């Protein structure tokens, strides 16, 4: 029993084996602490008050000894304590610093300590009872570890905890044992130092809590200096001092010193989940969202979206609600190519709310920069967020002038109502989880709490568009436009671009390309610029935009690959289109329709059939390609069935798609020989779209106008010039809408077809040739071919027929009113072969004509449509 007792010290911790000389060798953690400016404290407080302070200090030390299992060895010159575990020593030092601050606050003075922590081998021995009675310490401690800890303490600044590399390694690994507090600690290396009496240089680390740790270089002294190369020492460089000074001063004014992280303009950062140490759970969502909004005002720093972070968590096989702490955020940053991790924290210090932020290197997980801002009450926290985000933007190399230019105060661009901000943040979470109904309700709640909250109105717009409810989105969009002065600059341009679609459609493409140019890493801007250019057949211009958006940081990456594939299909770059579409389909499974068109455009119908089998029969939009491929093969009855199925599969029989899907059905009815039924259907579809256009606010105005013109074109092809003329005249009552390039061109094509019917092919040719810009639509060329034939210019007709046959990718990919003219384009791509044969025959080239006619008959083995027989 006695032997067992002697094997432990007074703290109950095991001791080393005693040597022959009575000494014990132990591997222990040694902590040295010293209160800064203790003499000045006595002068300010006086002897009595100081004595009371130190009695309270002693109680603090005793309490912490018990909490952290430490043994006090000496207090003659500061505190010297031993610990079994490095984490216990660190915990003591952290709590000691906070305890001192509390003691000082009661006396309206600032109390701080400097600390040195080291792990090493120590010699310990017990003094005799007689020696202790005469004033000796019960336990003596010596060894190289003791002066090492003393050197660390001596160079520490007030409030700074310094530790050796050995101690840092052991504590950093075990930091999770301290729970949430341990994960919140900030770490910084201060490089290697030379200590007097130490044979080798030692790396010095600092550890502390956000907003408290100084994170500054320790103080050099005669006994401790930074280990720098010889050429950097002033004594070795005296002769060159003047030259170096001149170069340094000139270099400083010529270029800014680079940040510690190799961060360049438009590099990416990962924002970790906000750590809320206040105990008020209501602050978490609202302040995290506010922090993102403030940081996203920067054009220098790109913030990885929450949606992309959750996507990366899924690829890491982690739950979507995994806390994005230092470690997880660093892993995400390395996977997604981000240069830095940003860790925000909100805490309550001395009755004030503190917003602090760390910038962390994702590879070493070391804190590179740290900033904090304090304020009184919740009303101050938004200003604190602006302060710390401005500081970290400067750390990452953004010019101060640019920060001032691009930044507006958070209450101005969001809301000063934290409840409204929380509702908005929860709406964002619901939106990213694709719960659009819940997102809309939360965004609406935010606008009820603060009707001037422009971002919340914009959230309603996004939720409605995501549910394909453009008409519902329009009211919220117009409200957001009224409040555009309350939006960050980027979001203001975003609202202006969307509003242009409805208020001045001809300007929309320019608005999107302007947004993409000013904010090249704002993917909604790049993606929509690509789509609007695509709709205008400006495919070469659209490609750079869609490729700028098709990067790993974009959470909608599959959508961008799908758009890129469609653009490349329209350019007949089939191999590239296949690669993009297959990649999109592997990510989302939503590009089967495009792959059908890709194969059919190359007349690889066996491959197209394989994709057709993968389409959902209940998907009304899948029947668009089904009908077009049937037309391509000359299967008029099959085309009619598929086009009819598209309509019967619709959930809403009164929406936009219920109108434009009538056009391919009417075409297939006409090709099947039901001209009267086709005419009635086209007029019903057009009149329905005209009725929708007559309403004051129609979000589908451009598509409805295209539906009217598409119906008019098919009617004109049937020879129904009077009905076509009426429809063109009706839609011309909307001049701002008709300034949109695709609509203006389609109206010209209908008029040209009417001129052909009226026996005026020359007028038609004049109208159509003006449209040949390289962006012209497929039906422009098809109508021009017919005009040349009617005018007897068969050489030019053959040229146009060749163009139509080569541009089958465009026939399938061209976008207007939900691909409502796709089937007609495909029909004309094959019909042009027949017309080429006829024109060759008219030119006296019967052999060539016969070959082309045989090819035509092979393409449509069941025969031409009824109206051509």
From TrEMBL:
GO process annotations (BP): cyclic nucleotide biosynthetic process; intracellular signal transduction
Biased segments, Basic and acidic residues type: 1-11
Gene3D superfamilies noted in UniProt: ABC-type transport auxiliary lipoprotein component, Nucleotide cyclase, Tetratricopeptide repeat domain
UniProt-recorded Gene Ontology molecular function terms: adenylate cyclase activity
Region annotation (Disordered) ranges: 1-23
InterPro entries: A/G_cyclase (IPR001054), Mod_pep_cyc (IPR030966), Nucleotide_cyclase (IPR029787), TPR-like_helical_dom_sf (IPR011990)
Name listed for the protein in its UniProt record: Putative peptide modification system cyclase
Species this protein is from: Marilutibacter spongiae
